[in-house]
Amino acid sequence: MQVNEYKPLIVAFCCNWCSYAGADLAGNNRLNYPADVKIIRVPCSCRVNPMFILRAFQRGADGVIICGCHPGDCHYTSGNYYTRRRMALLFSMLDYLGIERERTRLEWVSAAEGAKFAATMNDFAEKVAALGENKRLEDLRCKK
Amino acid sequence: MQKITRDTLVSKAVSLLENGTVDAVLGWGKGEFAYDVTPTVFETADEIRENFVWNDFCGANFSKYLVSKTRKLEGKILVFLKPCDTYSFNQLLTEHRFDREKVYVVGVPCEGMADISKVKAITGDGISAIDFTDNGLVITTLYDDEPKTVAYEDILAERCVNCKSKKHVAYDELLGETGEVLESARFDEVAKIEALTPDERFAFWQGELSRCIRCNACRDVCPACTCEKCVFDNPNSGAENKAPANSFEEQMFHIIRAFHVAGRCTDCGECSRVCPQNIPLHLLNRKFIRDIDNFYGEYQAGAEVGTRAPLVDYNLDDLEASDVFERRDSE
Amino acid sequence: MRKCSLSVLPALFAEIAKSNTLYIPASDNAGGAKFTKWEEGIQYLDTLNTVKSPKDFFFPHTEDLMEFKVTGKNIELFDIREESEDFVVFGVRACDVKSFDILDRVFLSDPVDSYYASRREHGVIISLACTRPAETCFCTTFGIDPATPAGDISAWKTEDALYLQANTQKGEALLSSVEALTEECDSTDVEAQQEKTRKIMQKLPLANLTTDSFGGGKTLELFDSPKWDELSEACLGCGTCTFVCPTCQCYDIKDFNTGNGVIRYRCWDSCMFSEFTKMAHGNSRLTQLERFRQRFMHKLVYYPENNDGLFSCVGCGRCLSKCPISMNIVKVMKALGGEKK
Lengths: 144, 331, 341
Prior knowledge:
The complex is a heterotrimer of chains A (144), B (331) and C (341).
Chain A: E1 10-15, H1 19-28, E2 37-42, H2 50-58, E3 63-68, H3 79-96, E4 104-108, H4 114-131
Parallel strand pairs in A: 1-2, 1-3, 3-4
Helix pairs in contact in A: 1-4
Chain B: H1 6-18, E1 24-29, E2 38-42, H2 45-51, H3 65-72, E3 77-81, H4 83-94, E4 103-107, H5 116-123, E5 127-133, E6 136-141, E7 148-150, H6 152-155, H7 158-161, E8 173-174, H8 188-194, H9 198-209, H10 217-221, H11 249-260, H12 270-274, H13 282-296, H14 324-329
Parallel strand pairs in B: 1-3, 3-4, 4-8
Antiparallel strand pairs in B: 1-2, 5-6, 6-7
Chain C: E1 2-5, H1 9-19, E2 21-27, E3 33-37, E4 62-71, E5 74-78, E6 87-92, H2 94-107, H3 114-122, E7 123-127, E8 153-157, E9 161-166, H4 169-177, E10 183-184, H5 188-203, H6 219-223, H7 227-232, H8 240-244, E11 251-257, E12 262-268, E13 278-279, E14 282-283, H9 288-306, H10 318-322, H11 329-335
Parallel strand pairs in C: 2-6, 6-7
Antiparallel strand pairs in C: 1-9, 1-10, 2-3, 4-5, 4-12, 8-9, 11-12, 13-14
């Protein structure tokens, strides 16, 4: 194994009711996913303001993933439907500005889907690792 | 040249003021030169007769002023709105930003407004007089013996070249006739940028946005930006920043600015008009409009009062975020 | 006085750039001009005014002042300022040159702003006389002669030649370093050009603007004028006028948390902004009228009161062409009695 292998920093916004529990389940089942995935718990995926995502990139994240309940399963009935529209537009905008589209993702992970959580994170980390460091959205001041 | 004359607007304003229908008139006020028109609240007929201006430089969209002016004034205010301004007017009404009862809207037809920077690119600085004629603007400068005629098609503002509608969607009274919603090529430029490679797109926007001086004019003029306290002015938001920092900060500001008005932006083009650095900010807004049209069905903000903006609405079978690029690339 | 043919201009730039960083007006690719670092291929743009004034060279829009690191109960301070290098700015107009005097009085009086002072020491200004003033120009109102710009070196550009005249030691040193490219000459051509420019200045639409009703001591008379209400009526509260202004000098000092330390930086502030001079007790100017008034009272009354009658406006006309609602210092002055009858 290479010692200096590049490991991307991933920020995962997980909704409290489904995806965070899914991450918990992944842990309980001893499923592996990269330690560089930093989970931030939010009450609902629609709590994720686009600024959170941009701020994460500014402060050194190489990829940002938002995880919420499956459509129809939102604890608050409809939060994830709003998330879906917002993120579709935001991701498309980031792409328009020349940001690699693989750096952002939205996934639905239920509380029972520990395996999906781990698999999603592994896949996402791999895709982001292939892109290398996030240069386009970083805030140079945070590099010091 | 505008078909409707200044005299028509002035006599309308004066008569409505004098018969007590309105107590004040929001119109364009005379400047030092022919082109530097200032939005003005007129309270007497004499002021109107003396200082009211109507010409090809009356680009300012007055809709947003209604939010503050209806609060400040006791009575009713007359506002002149061009077709594209009426969309912003409706959008503000949809968001309950002012009392409709306190406003009297007079719709004015618009033949498209001139962009003074385009004029100066042709004639150079030192403009001493402008005559508005059927053939174009006749510009006299300090440096040329003969006045120069510039055709309207060469100096029309970008947003007017790509005018989306000549139809007034809100008015109490119309001067002249209203027009139709137009087929415009306003998304062509967006499509052109989409067709570039990611690296080219990044370079393009880097080039444009790095000129930003964070004056906030784009936000302050925007009829969709009417928050009482903007997130970028709020020291507790963590996003307040008066400075164009040496990194991603400007892009952050512009992405969020455009995002916050996505679905509510009527594409009036004021952001690009006021930018002191000529950043094509409308291309960010139009990107959102185009995506909304493609993903969720055609939607024109402000076309009607009371519609739900796409970002505060959803369908059960909406496009998944992961399918966005597939959808777009297959177009 | 020295002169060189315009065809020598690229060589002149190259020679200056050998030992200094050189900035010249060049296209900003958006219809405007900006001072751009000269290197092979950068074209000099014959423009009247750059969009942003050259005040950035001495008082940058944003600059890092220092850095802290906090570990436990210890705080470490780092001086992170970049060492100023010698630089030359070519093509600064008379109005902008005058603006440096105005900034100097603020930043170089006690206590001296060492960041500003260091850059001022390292900078050499080559000014350039105007030949085609715009309708928005009114520098003569403030006693500036656009045909005789100050600066370390004054320059005049005619159709075929560039004339250079050193005014300071720094200027002389720079001029002697390019001696091989220039030749001694008399001032006949320059004088002819000056004469012509001065004639144009008299014909400008704003030539009748005067400062007679302004200056120190006018605070009580002007502060409560009913005119402020209508003048500020349409103001959007954006910072355009203050950010393109060569003499606006307000700044804010802020901390930025980088995650592993704090950068204390300074950035331009604007009296037009709602959070201008906001402090612990709140905000001292709550309405746009008060903030708008502040800008013009500062330039036309407060500043001259504290600086021997010197006005803090140079008549460059940038706010006239850039204000989104076309409200500007000329309209304010005229409304408050600043027009010759």
